[in-house]
Amino acid sequence: MKINFCEKNVVCFLTEYLLLFGLASFIGWLYEIICVWVLFRTYYDRGILHIPICPIYGFGILILIFLFRKVKNPFALFIGSALVTTGVELLTSYVLEYRFNMILWTYEGWPLSFQNRISAISSCLFGLMALAFIKLVKPPFDRLFSSKYRWIGTAAVWILALFCAFIEYRYRKTVGV
User: Fold this and answer.
1) How do residues 82-129 score in pLDDT, each as one tens digit?
2) CA distances from residue 16 to 9, 12, 71, 120, 148 in whole angstroms, order as listed
3) In Å, how far are 38, 47, 93, 100 from 114, measured between CA atoms?
4) Which of 30, 52, 55, 153 shows its CA 20 to 30 Å from the CA of 45?
5) Is pLDDT of 3 > 50?
6) CA–CA distance, 155 with 161 (Å, rounded to integer)
7) Mean per-residue pLDDT, 6-16
8) Considering the entire predicted model, what is its pTM?
């Protein structure tokens, strides 16, 4: 008897959302790199574990997908996403500063900023990125994982995981860690 794990939808669900997490984390990394380049004309790697991802963007998009899964109106999705991400950014800045004595970002000099912790400009950018991701990127993943070709998504997760492990291994070998 052959068992197709995707028929139970647990494996397919987890695989799809792991891929969405990875893609959003990579897009967030690109956003951070571009922001630093535009503002300071320098490259600064904002990734972790020596791979090009910023996991906060991955977690953020998963939270937004969950919160707004039934919202069809693009304007409502934009406003809701902008408000949620701004609230999370503000709360995170307070926790990092007062609990860990860290300031990882500042909007000093940005117009429409509040305490240099959040900015209306970044809020709009986060809202637009979330809207684009949920309306343009997520639907093809939904179609892929509801089709007979869902094995492609599962294979992609394994390939990406092996690639990231290889990058980390090569880095550690190079620096002697």
Assistant:
1) 999 999 999 999 998 999 898 888 898 888 999 999 999 999 999 999
2) 10, 6, 20, 32, 14
3) 21, 26, 12, 21
4) 153
5) no
6) 10
7) 69
8) 0.79
d(CA 119, CA 107): 7
Q: How many domains does the chain have?
A: 1
Cα(5)–Cα(151) distance, rounded to whole angstroms?
Answer: 10
pLDDT digit string (tens) for 122-160? Answer: 999 999 999 999 999 999 888 877 777 677 777 777 787
Residue labelled with tokens 């900015």: 119
